[in-house]
Every structure is written in C-alpha cells, then in structure tokens.
Amino acid sequence: MSFLKVPLPVKRPKYKVIQDYKFIPIANDESTKSALNYKPKPNDLFIVTYPKSGTTWTMQICMLLLNDGELPEEVRAKDFFARIPFLELMGSKAIDDACELMAIMTHLPFQLVPYNPKTKYIYVARNPKDVCVSCYFHNKSIYEFDGSFHEFMLFWLNGEVFYGSYKDHMLSWWEHKNDDNVLFLLYEEMKENIRGVISKIASFVGEEYKIKLEKNPEIMEKIVEKSEFSFMKQTTNKSFENFFSSKVNIAGNLAFIRKGIIGDWKNHFTEEENEIFEKWFQNSFSGTGVERLWDKSNVFTNLL
Q1: Which residue numbers in the chain have pLDDT < 70?
Q2: Which of 107, 150, 169, 176 is catalytic?
Q3: Is residue 107 flagged as an active site residue?
Q4: What are the pLDDT digits (tens) for 248-269?
Q5: Residue 177 domain-assigned?
Q6: What is the pTM of this model?
Q7: Helix (H, G, I), strand (E, B) or coil at 248
Q8: For residue 60, is it within any domain?
Q9: DSSP 185
C-alpha cells in the first residue's frame, strides 16, 4: 500500500537490495559492500546527490575547477569516471586505482555514506518534481521501465525505486547542511547563478582555488563554458553510453544530459498528479525548512 492508501501499480521500477538498501539494478554485491566500508581520507572530496539532481553537472564543474578549467585527458577520451569514480557501482578499488583522484561520486544518504569529519562533502538538492520526471526517463532509457509516468510517480513517492525515498535522503543531509565539512547546494541556484556557485565550491574545496579564480578570470570563463549543457551533451552523453552499454541493454539513445532545465515537470504532470505530489511534499517536509527551499522557483504552486 502507498502513502495514498491505494495499491501500487503492477509494473515496478527495477532495483537491487544490498544490505537492506535499494541500489541500481546493475549494482555488484562485492563492489557495493566495499564502497560502504570505504574509509575516507581527510583530503577526499565527495559529490553527493539523490539520483537525477545535478550529479554529472557538479562532477563536470569540480573536474574543471580542479584542473584550471580544462577536462582531464582521460575524461576527454570518454572515460568520465576516470577521475571521479562512482563509489557504490565501481567499489573502493576504483578509488585506489585512480591515477589522480579528483573526487568521489555517490548517491548514498548520510547514514550510509563513508564518513570522516575531515573529509569534504558537496550535496546538491533539486526540486523533487523535476527529479521525479528525470528519474522516470532515466528508468525508461536504461532500466527498461515500460509503465506510464503516473505509475512511476506513485512508486517514486513511496520510495519504491533505487536509492529509495527522496524524503529520507534529503532530510538525512539537510540535518548536516551547516556542518563545516558539508556544502549544501541547490540545483536551481546553480542554474540561476553559476558563477556564484563555482566561487562557492572553490572556497569550500580550498582557498587556493578561490584565489586562483580571482587572479585568473579566464579559468572561471572556461569552467562556465565547459559546464554548459550544450557542451556536455556533445561530450558526456557518449561517455556514459560507453560505460553503461556494457552493463545494460540501453533502450534507445541514452541521455544522461537530457534537458537540464527548471520546471520540466510542468510538461508531464496532470493537475491531479500535481495535487498528489503537493500533498506528499507537505506531508514530508512541513516544518523542516525544506518546504521553503524552492519559493523563488515557484515550484510548489498550482499547475495552471
């Protein structure tokens, strides 16, 4: 039964349970368990999101920031995870094997993420309506979900998808938003003020990067240019297709970088679905502070 107290649809999104948590269907038990047991080093940098919340975009920005506005050679050669391994999919060995580790990417909630108080964590949150839509298309293109958006939405709202409940994931990190070693960002802020967010990331990662940006404004312009969605669509999608095609049967053209806009949910939600979603949102976040995060974006208003 769902939070709406109605039976969930028959067609279910795929996931794999490992140690009582829902991971992506292609997760490997050994790699995932090694990831959960990874011991972070003080100089590690984690990029953390709930799926489809700006993960790839943030990885791109960090790679460019840490490499003077240029993409590392391995990434240009279509190996996007060469410098920023996907922790729970690739395992801790990928971190050990990385020739020049820049960061570590994960979708883990706070209680499962490998934690060290001296390690730095960037968490990016995106409004859940757009996340749900993006997750739907992601599940269709990679994991062969053939139900309707409405059916997928019901599962998503109930956490019956890989990485589970958006609510639980968000709140687990929201509680730590003011920790010195956590930088909490909004996807929508990145869209509206990318230079400001890049500067914020630079200050968080290390004062030397902030100083370098101030002394070399051309680096900032390179980062902005190469983190544009038009640029990333030409380079990053092919890299992800190469990576995932050996692991799953890709249904059609893989588009990790699909639209990257704010408000795409309006193109997919019916008025009834919007009412269901808003009820879930208020039940989930009322009184936490999360319910005010997207006031400027007018996400949680009437559909029409």
Answers
A1: 1-10, 77-78, 237-238, 240-260, 301-304
A2: 107
A3: yes
A4: 555 455 555 656 678 889 999 9
A5: yes
A6: 0.92
A7: coil
A8: yes
A9: E
